[in-house]
Design brief:
The structure holds two protein chains of two kinds. Chain A is an all-alpha fold. Chain A is built from six helices and no strands. Helices cover 67% and strands 0% of the residues of chain A. By secondary structure, chain B is of the alpha+beta class. Helices cover 34% and strands 21% of the residues of chain B. Chain B has helices spanning 11-26, 67-81, 100-105, 124-133, 150-163, and strands at 38-43, 50-55, 92-98, 111-115, 137-139, 142-144, 146-147, 169-173. Chain B is elongated and about 50 Å long. The chains are: A mainly alpha, B alpha+beta. Chains A and B meet through helix 4, helix 5 and helix 6 of A and helix 2 and strand 3 of B.
C-alpha cells in the first residue's frame, strides 16, 4: 500500500528534482513524450512551491487544502495572462504580481521577462492531458521544455 | 497532442512593434486618444515600480512569452531617444501584453458599450464616429468602447442612446471566461 506523507513545499522541490532527473533519463533514451510530460509537472511543482512560500508557508509546513484554495482564488482574481493547460502561465504571472505586494520589492525586470518566456515555452508544449495520449514529440520540443524547466528550477523566482 | 513550437516574430516586425510602442510612450498623454496601443502603468505598492499592461491588436502576431521583451525594449528605446527626460525603464517591474480578446476574456475592462443594430438599420460610419467620440479605440476588428468603471460606461451609454438611438446600444458587464 502506498503511503504518502504530508505535502510540503520542501517535498514539492525534492519531488521536482527527482522527476527532473527521471525526465532527463527518458529524454536521453529517446522517450521524448514521457520526458516532456514529467518536465511540465516539474515546472508546476517549482512555481507552486515558490508561490506558497511567498505567501508565508514555511518549507516544512503542510500545504493544507484550504490554504491552496485561498491562493488559487486570489490568483483567479488577479492574474491576466491567457488561459493555458494547468495554467503555468497564470501561476507565473501571479507569482510575479504578488511579490511586490507581499515583500515590498519586485523581482528584477530581467528575471521577470525570462521567467515569463520560459513559462510560455513550457505552456506551449505541455499539458496534463498528455497522459491520456500516445505522444510523438520531437526531440527539439522536449529539449526546449527541459531547458526552460531547468531554468525555472535553478534561476527562476524563489522565495 | 500537437507540438506548438514557440517562435519570435521576424526581426523587422519586432523592431517595428518596439518603435511604435516607444513612440506611444514618448507621446504626450492623450495625444492619440482613439489609437492603439493602450498602455496602463499600474503602481505596485508599496514599491515605486509599475505593472505595465499593454493592450494591442498587434500582439496577435507575438507569443505571450515574447511580449514582455518587446515592451521592455520599447521602454529602453524611449529612454535612449529622450535623454532629457527621467528614465522610465527602472520603474518597469512586470510588463504584460494582452490582445483585445485576451483583455475581454480576463475582464480587464469590466464594461463594454456596443451597438446591437442589424445590418442596414444604421449607418456604420455614424456608429464608428459616435463610439470614437465617446473614447473608443480604433482596432483592426472595429472600434472597442471599454471602461473599467460602471459609472463611466453608463455615462457613455446614455449619451449614445440619445445621440444615435437607431444603433440599439447595449451595456454589458464582462466576466472572466476562463474561471
Amino acid at each position: 500500500m502506498l503511503l504518502l506523507g504530508a505535502e510540503t513545499t520542501n517535498g514539492y522541490t525534492a519531488a521536482a528534482a527527482e522527476r527532473f532527473a527521471e525526465g532527463s533519463h527518458l529524454l536521453a533514451s529517446g522517450n521524448h513524450g514521457g520526458a516532456i510530460y514529467l518536465f511540465g509537472y516539474v515546472a508546476e511543482l517549482v512555481v507552486k512551491a515558490a508561490t506558497y512560500r511567498l505567501f508565508g508557508l514555511g518549507p516544512s509546513a503542510k500545504v493544507e487544502a484550504g490554504f491552496r484554495r485561498s491562493v488559487e482564488w486570489m490568483m483567479g482574481r488577479d492574474a491576466l495572462k491567457p488561459r493555458g493547460p494547468h495554467d503555468i502561465l497564470r501561476w507565473a504571472e501571479w507569482l510575479l504580481l504578488s511579490k511586490p505586494a507581499l515583500t515590498g520589492a519586485a523581482y528584477p525586470l530581467g528575471l521577470t521577462i525570462d521567467f515569463m518566456f520560459h513559462a510560455h515555452v513550457i505552456d506551449a508544449n505541455w499539458s496534463p492531458e498528455m497522459r491520456y495520449h500516445r505522444l510523438a514529440v520531437e526531440f527539439d520540443a522536449a529539449l526546449a521544455v527541459q531547458t526552460s524547466t531547468r531554468w525555472v528550477m535553478t534561476l527562476g523566482p524563489a522565495f | 497532442m500537437p507540438v506548438i513550437r514557440s517562435a519570435p516574430p521576424p526581426a523587422h516586425a519586432r523592431d517595428e512593434l518596439v518603435r511604435r510602442l516607444a513612440d506611444e510612450l514618448a507621446a504626450a498623454p492623450g495625444a492619440n486618444p482613439n489609437g492603439e496601443p493602450l498602455i496602463f502603468e499600474n503602481p505596485l505598492p508599496p514599491t515605486d515600480r509599475l505593472f505595465v499592461v499593454v493592450v494591442w491588436s498587434a500582439w496577435e502576431q507575438v507569443l505571450w512569452g515574447e511580449r514582455p521583451r518587446v515592451i521592455a525594449d520599447a521602454y529602453r528605446e524611449c529612454d535612449a531617444t529622450h535623454p532629457d527626460q527621467p528614465p522610465r525603464t527602472p520603474s518597469l517591474a512586470i510588463p504584460t501584453g494582452l490582445t483585445w480578446s485576451e483583455a475581454d476574456s480576463n475582464a480587464y475592462f469590466k464594461f463594454a458599450v456596443e451597438p446591437a443594430a442589424r445590418a442596414g438599420e444604421v449607418n456604420p460610419d455614424e456608429v464608428r464616429r459616435a463610439m470614437l467620440d465617446e473614447g473608443g479605440y480604433a482596432t483592426p476588428s472595429g472600434v472597442k468602447l471599454r471602461f473599467m468603471l460602471r459609472h463611466e460606461a453608463e455615462v457613455a451609454y446614455n449619451r449614445l442612446r440619445e445621440k444615435l438611438p437607431a444603433a440599439y446600444w447595449g451595456l454589458s458587464e464582462l466576466v472572466r471566461s476562463r474561471d
